[in-house]
Structures are given as structure tokens and as C-alpha cells.
Amino acid sequence: MTTILEIIIVILLAGIIGLFFLGLSRKIMARIHWRYGPPIAQPVIDIIKLFNQTSMSHGILFNFGIIFSLAGSVVVLLFLPLGRICPLSGSGGLLVILYLMLVAPLGLTLSGGEAANPYASIGISRIFLLAMGYEVPLLLILLSVMTHYNSISIVQIVSIQLQTGWSFQHLPLLLPGIAYILIFPAILGLRPFELIQAPQEISSGPMAEYGGKFLALATIQHAFNVFIGISLFTNLFLGGAENPGYFFLKMLAVFIIFLFVNAVFPRFRIEQAIRYLWKWPTLLAFAGLVIVMITG
Amino acid sequence: MDRNKLGKWLQSPGKMAQKYSLHVLYFCTGCGIIEIPPSITTRWDAERFGVIPVATPRQANLFLITGYVSVKTLRFIIRSYEQMPEPKFTVGFGSCPINGGMYWDSYNTIKHLDKYIPVDGWIAGCMPRPEAVFVAVTHLWTLIDKGMADGYKKYREDYQYYRENQEKILGKLEWPPLFSNIENERK
Asked: Which residues of A touch B47 (CB under 8 A)?
């Protein structure tokens, strides 16, 4: 019974925090551009509007894919500890999260591919190329974290950090931490790596044919995705937290720092992005893994 | 968000959300598009009213036609309009879509846009200033409030009239009718 309650609380909190982050990002970007900016609740207003529109389906896979992607994001949420709340803590840990993190982009590709829009197919190829780019360093980083703490359970990693300090204070994990910071915008789809949607270039990519309810579901999925990306980093390297409030403050700090990066950088081309992701973050993560192996 | 609008929000959230989240498809037909970048960037920030540009017609609910409409672009305007999800609103920007403007005797532009797609409002002038876009948005809000921005309903009811006008100028259209004729004859 408590598990079911925890599942509902985690999904609700993640949705609210994710949508708040989306609204905050639009506001902060506007202030950096010397504009006034929309109200913080603008993403919620957009979603209410989108649910009140007619929508056009392009086939069974189009409907299925977007729900599949939303479900994939929701399942990943349940494995991530949010403060002390972690509904599915007993099973899997980091390995399950690694597998399930690919479900959400896969659903988007299924759905976007069914629409048969040329821009959507360019966007789909970019989703997979970018995932291939950041999964290699991410895997190395997670390997070094798991080796250093001798555990694949993310709950255990958080509880060790609560006793001995953040991962950044453990010297062998410094290089993997820096590598994670370097690939972080790619996981979130923030600006140096905003090439999946790229509205000016490929008409918002896989979302090109989404309208009405489909776009609303895609926006909610994006909010969950932002939450997952920041939450994983906070749990692994910033020591998690005892209670959800403190955890939220940590996430907010991380997100605002990456918003500043988002505001000043232009967009990479896809081959520049892959070259960057496989050069510096991968080298750092590999060096970090070797150091962890030697010292651990 | 205004606190005294809370009652309205609870009463009809769909309508209020449509008012405060206008996703605009700018159709860059002519010179009018030059006034849009200042209105969406720093000087006159349109985003504070929830008005943002989107990339494709499927995501949009406000169609802004900026400048003269040549016969060739009319085809794409109609296709884009039919792809937008309902409820959708159209605004003609500048004097050219209203009555031809300075192209009143041109052989290659259409003179009255509202013969081909329904138009909810006009911004007159050559060129209108970016402030005029905001005046139009606030007028559109009152129209939505009163339920008078019903161009998309008119398009559904009088589809035969619009389709005939479109075929008169473009010849045979290569896409099938959006609404079936039987339904229209019954009305």
C-alpha cells in the first residue's frame, strides 16, 4: 500500500517539478535576453490548451509510440531516489536505469517515424546519433561510480554519500564527475546539443507532425525527461538528499547553471557534437575509470 | 496571472488557455514579415502574452499572413490552414491581404484573402508597426471571450463556397475536400 502511495507521489512531484523547470527556463532565458518573459505557469497553460484542441493521428504506431515513450519515462522515475522516497529501490539499480533510459527516445522515434515527415526522419536519426554519442561516456562514468562504491544499487550509493560526503569529495571520482558535467547538456537536450528539435533548422524534428493531445503528451514527457536527467546527476555526484525539499534545491541549482550555458552557446552540427562527445568527455571518463580501478 | 481572473479559469479553462497561449505560424509571404522579428525579440517581447512562433502548422493555432498573397503562395496558405488543429484563428497583417494594397491591379496576386480562407481579424496599414500586432492580439482575446472568433466554424459550414473560390483561381486542386460534401448539403 505504501509503495502505491509512493509511486503516485513520485510521479506527481516529478511532473510538477519538471513543468516548473520548463516554465523557469523560459523565464530565465527571457531575462537573459533582456525581455520580460512569459508567466512561470506558461507550460501548464499550453498543455491545457493542447488538450482542448482537435488532434490528428497518423496511424496506430503514432498513437502507441508517444504513450510508450511517456511510460518509459515514468518507469525510470520509479527507480530514482527522491530524497528518502524510492518506490522500487529493491531491484536493479543503475543497470536497469541505463536500459530504461533508452525507452523514451525509442518511443519518440516510433511515433515520429509513422508520421513520414522528412524533417521527422532527420530528427530521428539525430536522436539515435546523439544517444550513441553520450551513452559511451555515460557508461564509463557509471562503471567508475559502481566500481568505486562496490555497488550497483543507486539507493546504496546515495546512503554511502550521506555518510562520507559528496562524490566530488572522493578524489578518484573527480574526473568522471567533470566528464558528466560535459555531457550533461546532451542528455537534457540543452543548447550546445539542441539538435534534435532545432526549430529553425528542421522544424522541431520528430515533433513536426505533433498537434493537440500528442504535443501535450510530448511536452509532459519532456518535463519528465528534464527531471530524470538532473535527478540522476544529483543522486550520483551531489550526494542525493535526506528530504525532497533539499533535493529540489540541489536540482534547481544544477538546472540554473546549465540554463546559463544554454543561453550563451550556439548549436553544434551533428558531426561536431559526436566528435566532441567522443573526444573530451570519453577521454576524461576513461582516465577516471583507470584511476578508480588502480586506487579501488 | 491575474487573481481576479481565477473564476474565469475555473469556469472555462479551455477557452482561457486558448487566449493566453497563442502559438503563431508566421506565413512569410511578403515584406510584412520584417515587422515580426522586433515584435518577438527584446524590444517588444510578445512571449509575455504567451505568443510564440512555432515551426509547423500542426502545432499552431494562430495564422498570421504577413504581406501580399500571390496565386502561387495561396495554394500553400490553404494547405497550411487545413493542417492546423481546431480551434484556429487567422489574422491578415498589412493592407495587401485586405484589398490588394499597392498590388491592387497586379495580375498575379489575390485581392481579398477572406474569399479563400476565413479571416478573424485584420491589421490595416502599410506597414503596421509592431505595436499593432499586440493590439490585434488583445482584440482577438475579446473576440475569443465573446465567442466571435469562429472562422474555423465558418470554414466548416461554408466549405463549398470557399472550395469553389479556391478552384476558380487555382484550377483543379490535387487534394480531396477537407469536409465531405454530403454533410454540407444536408445543412
From this structure: 26, 30, 35, 37-38
